Amino acid sequence: MGAVQKLATVVIVGLVGLATLLVVYLANEPNRRASEAVVQKDVAIERGIQTFIQNCVVCHGPAGEGYSEPGAKGTGRIGMPLGGNTEAGKAATERNQTTNPTQRQQRYDLIVKTINEGRGLMPAWGSGAPGGALLNDEQIYELATMIQNVDWNVVYNDTIATDGGYPTFPPAPASAGGAAPTPAPGAAQAAAPTSGPIVVEMHDIYFQPKEITIPAGQDVKVTLKNLGAAPHDFSIDALKISYALDPGQTKEITINAPAGTYEFYCNVPGHKEAGMVGTLVAKEGAAAPAAPAAAQQPAAAGGAAQAKTYTITAHDIYFDPKELTIPANTDVTIHLPNEGASPHDFSIDALKISVALDPGETDKTVVINAPPGDYEYYCNIPGHKEAGMVGTLHVVAGAAAPAPASAQQQAPAATSAPAAAAPSYTITAHDIYFDPKELTIPANTDVTIHLPNEGASPHDFSIDALKISVPLDPGETNKTVTINAPPGTYEYYCNVPGHKEAGMVGTLTVK
Questions:
Q1: Cα(9)–Cα(19) distance, integer angstroms
Q2: pLDDT given for residue 175 in this prediction
Q3: Under 8 Å CB-to-CB from 24, ≥6 apart: which residues?
């Protein structure tokens, strides 16, 4: 009996020990599962960031700021704000990352559904994508988890590290002394046949121009420029044409097409669906290009009976130009092409004007005859004005037709401006470049340079050799600097850490 009792005691002690371990394990199970869930969530967030950088930055921006950033000119973004430091981005982060369990689950379900099936201008990436899903269920789960939990500053930094710099290419460089003039609606490349070179620019995420006309049955050279932050492509299926371009790349191609109308588009997944599509028209006996856009402006003299014409172009999601000066008490025709992928509108409440503009529409105009004053024009589609789609119309008594933008930038008018007035120029700060990158001013003369900051970030305008440093807050438009310098070449740059290295630099030539 002694041996049996000893065995029984060992068994009982063993069972008690196992039971104790089981109790301890079960008691710690919630903590273990919570810890494992945290690790899984962190992995999902990291993988979601990589998926976002590869597929979403082009429309939503490196910090998820979307189209709502101030100074979105040149980005071409059409994505809704998801994060970032803009007002709309912060509001989106608050909605998506709510701590209310019920609302959080509803937002998660909406995010997953939107990525899967698309919504508005956003194409479907999952189950609703034509031809098959572009992202699998796991990638969509990771994206949704990332959007609901991520620090968008981390996304921004990872994007910069991946791209080797800020992933938004600036507009094509302007000639020294000023930016290129805004083309008139249906400008020569967009509407007139041509036997010479044509330039088609690829932006994120649209073509400029959206329509080109060439003579049928002739070799026509077309220069393709990818000014976007993402890879793009120029494809015409009917002509068996497909050219891929990396960001910043330029290619020259030759097109010879029989008479007809052809669709050109970007074949990168999701880009055509987002609006990156245009029309090539091949015409028999097509003539030479129309006169340059500047010739469409009324002559300074001898044309008093003809209404003056101007252009305000709607983009996603800004107007170009943001300011326009017209003569008072005169019939003025303003062309209103919509080069955006979204519907827009041109409204001036004080003049009871509201003109709806469909995507790609180029033939809308409005005739304005107004007394002197400043009038706000804006897009009345909900959210667009708040996102920065607003401008100012200056109506001035005795104002003449505007000179081309390049002429306005390069030198003051010789006859209309008082001799003592300081020449005035503009250098605009964007995220993350200056426009223009080159400017020429007269030497040993007081020159006023306006320094609007249309970026979402603080910037600065510095010229070390002239001991100039002007801080620029986001959206600030009233800063100026007066320069009087001897002949020479001077570097201007943004002294905010990392901005000069990312390309925010330019050249001031003083002659």
A1: 15
A2: 30
A3: none
**Which pLDDT value is given to residue 432?**
76
Question: Side by side, which strands form the sheet with 241-245?
Answer: 211-215, 277-283, 260-265, 232-236, 241-245
Token look-up 């050249």 returns 507
Stretches where the chain sits below pLDDT 50 are 68-75, 168-196, 288-307, 401-421
Note the pTM of the prediction, 2 decimals: 0.37
Return the axis-axis angle of helices 137-149 and 101-117, rounded to nearest 10°. 140
What three-state secondary structure class fits 421?
A: coil
Taking CA atoms, 498 is separated from 7, 434, 463, in Å, by: 75, 14, 17
pLDDT of residue 217: 87
H-run or E-run covering 122: none
Query: What gap in Å lies between CA 465 and CA 475, rounded to an integer?
Result: 27
Round to whole Å and give the CA distance between 469 and 496.
Answer: 11
Bridge-based pairing of strands 390-396 and 323-327 is parallel
What is residue 316's three-state secondary structure? coil
Alpha-helix residue ranges (DSSP H) falling in 313-447: 405-410
Q: 55: closest CA among 236, 242, 229, 248?
A: 229
**DSSP helix/strand/coil, 159:** helix
Could you give the domains of the chain?
37-163 (1.10.760.10), 188-288 (2.60.40.420), 305-404 (2.60.40.420), 421-511 (2.60.40.420)
Res 382: pLDDT: 75
Q: CB neighbours of 325 closer than 8 A, spacing ≥ 6?
A: 393, 394, 395, 396, 399, 402
Task: Extract the tokens encoding 356.
Answer: 């709806």
C-beta atoms surrounding 186 within 10 Å: 20
φ and ψ at residue 136, rounded to 5 degrees: -85, 175
The encoded tokens of residue 81 equal 């704000």
Interaxial angle between packed helices 2-55 and 152-163, expressed in degrees from 0 to 180 and rounded to the nearest 10: 60
The burial of 71, by beta-carbon neighbours within 10 Å (0-12 exposed, 13-18 middle, 19 or more buried), is given as: buried
Amino acid occupying residue 476: E
What pLDDT shows up at residue 299?
A: 36
What's residue 167's pLDDT?
A: 57
pLDDT tens digits for range 83-135? 888 777 888 898 899 999 988 998 899 899 989 888 766 778 888 777 677 88
The pLDDT value recorded for residue 300 is 36
